[in-house]
Write a structure and sequence with these properties.
Belongs to the monovalent cation:proton antiporter 1 (CPA1) transporter (TC 2.A.36) family. The protein contains 20 helices and no strands. The chain is mostly helical. The longest helix is centred in the middle third of the chain and has 31 residues.
């Protein structure tokens, strides 16, 4: 199967699922794409018992496509830029302390607690693994996924303060979580083990460099966009900013995801401040919204299809469900501790922590990081577990968030 044939098949499936969801199901799009992709994957695996060559061909095509490179190497830049383009800086400014705390200190605490909990869980199940790979697993599922979170926010009617906290935290903690994962991965890679000081410097370089790069890219992009009034050129400039900027960050060894969040926030807000014409702003917003929808559809379908590569392992998938419950509990504990330690409760509406905990979904970034684990760090254990965490997050948390909101808002404060 050629790359074009595979890509065409994937886009056709995504378009078909989008039609079925818009026409009949009317559920959160990303979640339904994931579930329908899982359904197709199970069908492919079942058909393999009749025609083994078919399943082998599909698995081979999925392996050649390389989900990790597809998401982390290219698509993530577009999705993060598009997602942050619509977030208002003035709303973020009102809750910046909680977003900063949850997306840095909260991620570090959650990584440690989930890693320790996973270590204990695996040993109780008879799987003897060192602590460091478990901490890597904690790093890849502790942060919430902005792609999944922003998708579910479109279907809910949240208090603006809570919505900004959830969206802002997911945008920044994802980038910071990737930095933590990369730092731990370097520590875990065989060879010369870096000291705690060098690991901290790596973390600072990745995160601080990404934020700085995002600011520089946004400034250059803004200056170029402001000097022309030709929406086709301005759309191309934003595309160049995302693609060229992400590639540059990769070459410099700084966080591309954090850079894209900063650039998207800056470009989106200056475009609303009158720096560009109304026509340009309208085209920019519609272009990035359409691209975001298409890439999200393809991504979630591909996530479901990855089950063909991962396989159905009841033991590890069951451990993954247990890890998903653990991650959910840890998230609530960490949010509560961070809120209490930093005195943030006064700026949060009632029951915010319960909503932030349940609404903190995991998605494609966690799966991409797991699929990219080297052989020595036990991907055969952590990939199916991560897939189960993502599926649990989508089905159990994503599909019940509206009901939870209704129940919480109906109770007296």
């Amino acid at each position: 199967m050629s790359l074009f044939t595979f890509s065409a098949s994937l886009l056709t499936l995504a378009a078909l699922f989008s039609y079925l969801n818009a026409r009949f199901m009317r559920r959160p799009a990303g979640i339904m794409f994931l579930l329908l992709g899982v359904g197709v994957a199970l069908g492919v695996l079942a058909w393999g018992h009749i025609v083994p060559s078919f399943t082998v061909a599909v698995r081979g095509a999925l392996l050649r496509f390389d989900f990790t490179e597809f998401l982390m190497g290219s698509v993530l830049s577009f999705l993060l830029f598009a997602g942050s383009l619509h977030v208002r800086v003035d709303a973020l400014r009102a809750v910046w302390r909680s977003i900063a705390a949850y997306s840095t200190l909260g991620v570090l605490l959650a990584t440690g607690l989930v890693g320790l909990g996973t270590y204990v869980l695996l040993h109780l199940a008879g799987v003897e693994l060192p602590l460091l790979p478990c901490l890597l697993f904690g790093a890849l599922i502790a942060p919430t996924d902005p792609i999944a979170v922003l998708g579910i926010l479109k279907t809910t009617d949240l208090d603006k303060n809570i919505e900004t906290n959830l969206a802002g935290e997911s945008l920044f903690n994802d980038g910071f979580g990737v930095v933590v994962f990369v730092t731990l991965l370097e520590v875990a890679t065989p060879g010369e083990t870096p000291s705690a000081g060098s690991a901290a410097l790596l973390l600072l370089r990745e995160a601080g460099g990404g934020l700085l790069a995002g600011g520089v890219l946004a400034y250059v992009g803004y200056r170029l966009i402001k000097t022309v009034d030709h929406f086709q050129t301005e759309v191309m400039l934003t595309l160049a900013l995302v693609m060229g900027g992400y590639a540059l960050c990769h070459a410099l060894g700084v966080s591309g995801p954090l850079a894209m969040v900063v650039a998207g926030l800056a470009i989106g807000n200056v475009s609303r401040s009158g720096a560009v014409s109304d026509t340009t702003r309208d085209y920019l917003e519609k272009f990035w919204e359409a691209l975001d929808e298409v890439l999200n559809a393809v991504l979630f379908v591909l996530m479901g299809l990855e089950l063909v590569v991962i396989g159905v392992s009841p033991f590890y998938l069951g451990l993954g469900v247990a890890a998903a419950v653990l991650a959910l509990l840890v998230r609530y504990v960490v949010l509560t501790l961070t809120t209490g330690l930093l005195g943030l409760s006064r700026q949060l509406p009632p029951r915010t922590l319960a909503i932030l905990s349940w609404g903190g979904l995991r998605g494609g970034i966690s799966l991409a990081l797991a699929l990219g684990l080297p052989t020595g760090l036990h991907p055969e254990v952590f990939v199916p577990m991560t897939f189960a965490v993502v599926l649990f997050s989508a089905v159990v948390q994503g599909l019940t968030l509206k009901r939870l909101l209704g129940w919480l808002t109906s109770r007296p404060a």
